[in-house]
Design a protein that fits this description.
The chain is α+β, with helices and mostly antiparallel strands. It has helices at residues 7-18, 24-31, 35-47, 80-91, 117-130, and strands at residues 67-74, 96-101, 108-114, 135-140. It is built from 5 helices and 4 strands. A hairpin with a 6-residue loop joins strand 2 and strand 3. The chain is elongated, with a radius of gyration of 20 Å.
Length: 153
Amino acid sequence: MAVRIDDLDRKILREVQRDAGQSLDEIARAVGSSKTPVWNRIRKMREAGVMGTQTVVLDPEALGFDACFFVLIRTSEHDAAWQQRFLEALRARDEVQEAHRLAGDIDYILKVRVPNARAYDQFYQALIAEVRIHNVTALLSMEELKFTTALPV
């Protein structure tokens, strides 16, 4: 179902992406509208699935998660049973922030956040004990240059 989004909706979405903790009054003021129309539009966009759950972005380094690894996975197995076990293994590990199935030479890429290299090794050992993987390459991010969850609406 395609949802029609107009300019006011886009302004609301930009504001909510910037800071979802704002009051309706603050959002309405920022987008040049009043509270009731803003609330109705937010409600409609939530019902349509345009807006999901509200969360808070935490600072990983402030919480001791200093190491971010991008894990490239190649597998020689592509059957449904293996894929299900792999998916279950990923969902069971809080260290995995993102997981993507790819087209091309690499089958999957994971974004894994851990305190240090030793913690990554524990994650890696647990993963390969659970699921057969042909090849794993881990890339340590030296510096995060840009991070956003905002879409360019």
